[in-house]
Amino acid sequence: MPFNEQLLSAKQTTMNFFKKLFVGLVLFIFIALGVSYVLTRFSYSKGVRAGVVSKLSEKGYLFKTVEGELNVGAQGQVGNMANNLWAFTVESDNTEVAAKLQEAMTVGKRVTLHYEQRYLKFSWMGDTDYFITAVEEAP
Predict the structure, then answer these.
(1) How many Cα atoms occupy the beta-carbon half-sphere of 3 within 13 Å?
(2) First CA to last CA across the chain, in angstroms?
(3) Which residue of 33, 104, 114, 139 shows the fewest CB atoms closer than 10 Å?
(4) What are the Cα distances from residue 53, in Å, to 5, 68, 84, 103, 105?
(5) Contact by Cβ (8 Å): 49, 84
(6) Nearest-10 Cα torsion for 27, 32, 37, 42
(7) Contact (CB, 8 A) for 89 and 40
(8) What angle do CA 47, 119, 112 make, to 5 degrees?
(9) Which residues of 26-38 are buried (b: 16+ CB within 10 A; e: fewer)?
């Protein structure tokens, strides 16, 4: 086999290797993104907590979230009994829940928060693992 044919064959082999490597990397990235999306949307724990909303703040530069704290301690605490604060996150697209929380905090109403805890959370999704899905006025 002449030298030029050997050189051409080596180039083709190398190009085929890098094409397969590129396709494999792109496929891996798409699969990783798909799995990450699924893990950030599904929860492994759901629950309910009741108390008085003591803090709400909007955080984030690009991706806004509402971060809050719920005082789940006993009502009418006296002395130096420590408050039992529970931190939660409301996603930016859940404006109805954020509005209900704001109203409850302003009036001082006791509320019941329905939440879900997710498998995976990225830093721009909020400060906590607990995402509020619904708000009800507590009896």
Answers:
(1) 0
(2) 89
(3) 139
(4) 76, 7, 12, 10, 5
(5) no
(6) 130
(7) no
(8) 20
(9) eeeeeeeeeeeee
Is the per-residue pLDDT at 4 higher than 70?
A: no
This prediction's pTM: 0.72
Output the six-digit token pair for 124.
């721009």
Most confident region among 33-42, 103-112, 120-129 by mean pLDDT: 103-112
Q: What is the pLDDT of residue 11?
A: 77
Q: What is the pLDDT of residue 108?
A: 86
Closest C-alpha to 137, from 116, 96, 108: 108
pLDDT for 67 equals: 93
Residue type for position 27: L
C-alpha separations of 43 from 7, 66, 85, 129, 132 in Å? 56, 19, 22, 10, 12
- Provide the pLDDT for residue 119: 82
Per residue in 63-100, pLDDT tens?
Answer: 888 999 998 875 555 555 556 889 999 988 888 999 99
For residue 12, what are its two tokens?
Answer: 């083709």
CA pair distance 57, 132, nearest whole angstrom: 14
